[in-house]
Predict the 3D structure of the following.
Amino acid sequence: MRHPDVLVVGGGVVGAACARALSQRGSRVMLLDTGPQRGAASLIAAGMLAPLAEAAAQDPMLGWAVRARDLYVELAPILLEETGVDIGIWTEGIMQLAFTEEEVAKTKSEVAWRRQSGFTSEWLSPDEVREQAPGISKEVLGAAFAPEDGSVEPVALLEAMLKSAESKGTEIVRDQTVQQVLVDGDRAEGVKTATETLYAGAVVIAAGAWSGRIGGMPRPLTVEPIKGQIAILDWPARERRTILYGAGGYVLTRGPQVIAGSTMEYVGFDASTTDQGLSHIRETAARLYPSLEGAAIRNSRSGFRPMTPDGMPIVGPDPHLDRLWYATGHGRNGILLAGCTGELVAQLHAGEAVEYDLNPISPSRFWDW
């Protein structure tokens, strides 16, 4: 397939989800696995599906994010049947902990707003928190509980999305670094890689943190890499599974281990893990769960989140250049929003109506002057 209907640039979970959804609607799709780290953001993702646990009051995209979470409940058995890959869906709730009276007041206000907006959210007293997580810190004064939030396994999700896309006809081309988008007049016509020129009916930029490094686009793409580090620790025996936010970090149990994170570092593409970063993560995890104090770090990883100036993704068609699309800039919510982003791009490409206000994530919010 040297002239696909759609050429998706980026082999991470968002690019794979776009390729899958486009192929499912009958498009001939080529997926270029670009960048030195495949699924770089997935490497440091805990895999949380936390639209409510993380939502601030008046979040304009909360409805879309909740739909994105719920889509995985539908997709998990489908992907398992299509690919044999279990994405590890878990939807038993996430707690957002309050350690100070100021945090209590703020969190209670957010719970009230979520409930008023029609979403499921609860305030838990300290005793109710400890019923959910007996080993939690005694400093905790309460928590917001999102009982339908949860998690998936990011690496398994990426594998499943790629296999599913391929089974639907997507051609996956690996180890291809895209240098620039090719433009003919007022439309995109393909891309140039280090070794060849590829033409396509449309181009989707889904290269994560590397999206802004691709040349030839009509204006600079405001996506920057934000490094994150995570640590893998042993989870205390007999403690029940849990996902907790608080004190500037999180812990998420998966099997006999806990994923603790994470950092937000503006250091370009420096992918190294650091003693300082891992020490901070371990200290924060111990504040949430005191039994983690002194726990050995079994593994650690770092990767890059693709961040935009306003923290919102860039999804949709270029406002001025025909046949160029964007699906990037998802920041810390790439896993949560990937499946729904793929569906959204495929719907828009097919000219189908969508049910959400897309202005908050439209590319034109930065460039329409």
Remarks:
- The two ends are 38 Å apart (CA to CA).
